[in-house]
Specification:
2 copies of one chain form a homodimer. By secondary structure, chain A is of the alpha/beta class. Helix content of chain A is about 35%, strand content about 15%.
């Protein structure tokens, strides 16, 4: 893949043009939290032009501590004034895991990792039974309903002690089949749960 | 900003074309961990075409626990086989903070947040003195040297107990003035620190 990336970059850089003079703060002062899924292009589906927004991407677009800290930094250091949480249909980390209950997932991942540690694919041997940090970290990836997940994450961000109450936090669902955003009405009221 | 996003999406979706049929796993099976900075376009600077890679973005592109868990998920559930850690020049969260030592940053952010809680900008009042979770969370954002930061994060990922030793982890610096990636040679050896 190294060569693929080098090839892509060699094609990209010569046509970089005046993008080198884009200002550091995002042009339209908003931040998007969304999933790492390869099919998503937040600059396309939500920005009017490149450099409009800061983009945080993490498995499922979920609002874990690191994502929330990045949101706070985007606001405190770079002046973003509105945040969008965007989860999407056919989410691998969400919907593949949604076939299992939380307990099942924990056991599955724990067993998978423990088995892998003994197998040929190079995993370290580590204790990852239910209750370990690794097992707990997947609890928040197993909620099946998309709108409910968006609302849950908006609420989690809204109630986080470092998050300014004044900042609007919008929730959206993105449909990977047609590129459309659907606003989650319940998630858009500023300060609703604070 | 809500209207800007809606306008952007209404322009994007009608020309979505056959992107709705992209497969869930990334086409070229690699994952990029990079910064949330508005000026970065990983799909442009590192992918040969849309859908090539999963993209994790977080403040500074730093390898915190949530980012590492996303990398592990990208490998275990979606089959990525190589990872790229890409930090960039003129990084707001890095270089603005690099003017201060760790202790200074902690105090600054803690004081900023405590002051804000008393001021008009809507921050909750919360204990964020040195040693608190919030203060500790910014420790890893204060290393000034870009190549050193990339190497540090590659090493951190490499030595994480959930990360397969077989997976190559490349480190790169991205120059926001010309769109070019510079490979961090020291960071590219698979299994170097495991």
């Amino acid at each position: 893949m190294r060569d693929d990336v080098r090839t892509a970059n060699e094609a990209y850089a010569p046509s970089f043009g005046d993008r080198g003079s884009l200002a550091l703060p995002p042009a339209r002062r908003f931040t998007i939290l969304t999933c790492m899924d390869a099919r998503l292009d937040p600059a396309g589906y939500a920005e009017r032009s490149e450099g409009d927004a800061q983009v945080i991407r993490i498995a499922g677009g979920r609002a874990g501590d690191d994502a929330v800290h990045s949101l706070v930094i985007s606001c405190k250091l770079l002046g973003t004034a509105e945040w969008f949480v965007v989860h999407h249909t056919d989410c691998g980390t969400e919907e593949r895991m949604a076939f299992f209950a939380d307990e099942g997932i924990r056991d599955l991942l724990a067993n998978s990792l423990e088995t892998a540690a003994l197998g040929p694919d190079g995993f370290h041997d580590v204790g990852t039974g239910p209750g370990s940090t690794e097992a707990r970290s997947v609890d928040r990836l197993t909620i099946a309903d998309l709108a409910q997940r968006v609302l849950e994450d908006v609420t989690r961000i809204r109630s986080h002690p470092l998050v300014p109450t004044r900042i609007p936090i919008d929730g959206d669902r993105y449909d990977v089949t047609d590129g459309r955003l659907i606003e989650a009405e319940d998630a858009t009221e500023p300060g609703a749960s604070s």
